[in-house]
Specification:
- By secondary structure, this protein is mainly alpha-helical.
- It folds into two domains: 86 residues, Winged helix-like DNA-binding domain superfamily/Winged helix DNA-binding domain (Arc Repressor Mutant, subunit A, Orthogonal Bundle), CATH 1.10.10.10; 134 residues, GntR ligand-binding domain-like (Four Helix Bundle (Hemerythrin (Met), subunit A)).
- The protein is built from ten helices and two strands; from the N terminus they run H-H-H-E-E-H-H-H-H-H-H-H.
- It has a two-stranded antiparallel ribbon.
- The model has no long low-confidence stretch (mean pLDDT 89).
C-alpha cells in the first residue's frame, strides 16, 4: 500500500498535469474535461488517482463534476484558476497543531448550527455514533474512529454542506495523528462518553449556548495536549 506522502505526491503531479492540459488545450470556463479513463491512460495512473485529484479540485471549486455528464472547468477566469492551482500545489502538509486548531474552530461553530437545525434523523445518527463509541471504550478498545464519526455526525447535523466537507477533508489526517501521538488514553476516553452525552443532550434540547460550552469542555484536554506537545 502507498504511504500518505506518496499518495499526496501522485495527486499533486496529476493536478499539475490537469492544469497543463487546460492551458495547452485552451479550455474555457464550462468546457468539459476528458473522462477519468482517458486521463488515467494519458497520465499513466489509476482511475482512483484521477478521481481523488478531481475531488480535490472540486473541493476548491476549480472544477465541477456532474453525474452522468462529466467534469467541467469552473466558471472562473483561467488566470485565477492557474493561480489557485499553484497555491494548492504549494500547500504544505498541516501539522497536528494546525489540524487541531482547524477542527476546534469548525466544531465550535458547527455544534451551534447543529443545535439549531438538527432533525430527528440527525439525533438518531448521533445516538448511534455515541453508542458505538461507548461500546468500544467500555470494552477497552481503541475508539478514535468512533469518536470522530460522532463529530462528523454533528457536522452533518449542522445543515451546512461546506462545513461538513471541511470536516470530512481533515478527518483522515486527524485519525492518523491521534493514533501516532496516542492522544486519547483510557481515562480521557471514559470521560469522553459523558462529554459526548452532554453535547448530544444540548443538541437535542436545541440549546446553542450549552452546546458550545459542552464542546469547549470536551476539547479542553485535546487543546492542552496539542500545545504542551509543540
Amino acid at each position: 500500500m502507498l504511504i500518505a506522502t506518496e499518495i499526496q505526491r501522485i495527486q499533486k503531479r496529476i493536478i499539475a498535469q490537469i492544469k497543463a492540459l487546460i492551458n495547452n488545450k485552451n479550455y474555457e470556463p464550462g468546457d468539459k474535461l476528458p473522462s477519468e479513463r482517458m486521463l488515467a491512460e494519458k497520465f499513466e495512473v489509476t482511475r482512483s488517482n484521477i478521481r481523488d485529484s478531481i475531488q480535490t479540485l472540486e473541493f476548491y471549486g476549480l472544477v465541477k463534476s456532474i453525474p452522468q455528464s462529466g467534469t467541467f472547468v469552473a466558471d472562473i477566469g483561467i488566470t485565477a484558476l492557474n493561480g489557485m492551482i499553484d497555491d494548492i500545489l504549494n500547500l504544505p502538509s498541516p501539522s497536528f497543531k494546525e489540524l487541531v486548531e482547524a477542527r476546534i474552530f469548525l466544531e465550535l461553530k458547527g455544534v451551534k448550527l447543529a443545535a439549531l437545525r438538527r432533525t430527528e434523523d440527525d439525533l438518531i445518527h448521533l445516538e448511534n455514533a455515541l453508542a458505538a463509541y461507548s461500546d468500544k471504550v467500555i470494552r477497552g478498545e481503541d475508539a478514535v474512529q468512533e469518536d470522530l464519526l460522532f463529530h462528523l455526525a454533528i457536522a452533518k447535523a449542522s445543515g451546512n454542506p461546506t462545513l461538513n466537507t471541511f470536516m470530512l477533508k481533515i478527518t483522515p489526517e486527524i485519525i492518523t495523528n491521534f493514533e501516532k501521538h496516542h492522544v486519547c488514553d483510557k481515562d480521557t476516553a471514559f470521560k469522553g462518553i459523558q462529554e459526548h452525552k452532554d453535547i448530544l443532550d444540548a443538541i437535542r434540547s436545541m440549546d446553542t449556548v450549552e452546546a458550545k460550552n459542552a464542546m469547549k469542555k470536551h476539547f479542553k484536554n485535546l487543546y492542552q495536549y496539542c500545545y504542551s506537545a509543540y
